[in-house]
Amino acid sequence: MYAFDYERPASMADALAKISAGGQALAGGQTLIASLKQRLAQPGSLIDLAGVAELSGIKKDGNNIVIGAMTRHETVADSADVKAAIPALAALAGGIGDRQVRAMGTMGGSVANNDPAACYPSAVLALGATVQTNKRSIAADDFFQGMYTTALEEGELITAISFPAPQKAAYAKFRQPASRFALVGVFVAQTASGVRVAITGAGNGVFRHAGLEAALTKSFTPEAVEGVAIDASELNGDLHASAAFRAQLIKVQTQKAVKEANG
Fold first, then answer.
1. Distance CA 73, CA 174 (A)
2. Burial, 3: exposed, middle or buried (Cβ in 10 Å; 0-12, 13-18, 19+)?
3. HSE (CB half, 13 Å, CA atoms) of 161?
4. What is the pTM of this model?
5. pLDDT tens, residue by residue, 185-242
């Protein structure tokens, strides 16, 4: 790594001041630390947010579950409140990486990083969550803007994410065996206003699929997915899977998610 200063503020105000002065925010470090080791990043100082207590925790707010940005994956997976209101979200968190990753990785860090194969963005988008920052609230549909790109501005930090509880939901992921990232992950949520389907791992970022949503809003069954066309020309192909294979996986994983959501 290049040399850098390490600071661990205890308050949000102190953290924001240090970041405004040019510091690099550090959440769980699952991506940033690897980048530092490869000398792909050269921050003058790292501002570790782990000491900011107000950024962690899970609470109920009416029909919503509000999760602090620094809440670890394992905490989300084990939360009784999350399991009761949105069991699909708890299951998703429990399937991220391995035990070490779940012990260190954070929800806010994952969503802010917006890796195109990360799991959390699909939950945020499918559930129509609201990303809360130190400056504003951002609807999920406005937040994700492409590969590693979000609506966050310079100096803006995610503080929490508010998830409305759906009527039904499930997440189905086909894992890449080594990294455990999603070759294709599909989060399906049935809400009062219709079905939302968010797909990760298949494109240049998480995205919704209008055809799947329309078919499942009409009939929330695995059979409804059969007649939906998935355009492989808009999907990724790499050494792990071709675009055509990912297109087929989208249908299969969507059917699995619907079946699981229906119990």
1. 19
2. exposed
3. 27
4. 0.95
5. 999 999 999 999 999 999 999 999 999 999 999 999 999 999 999 999 989 999 899 9
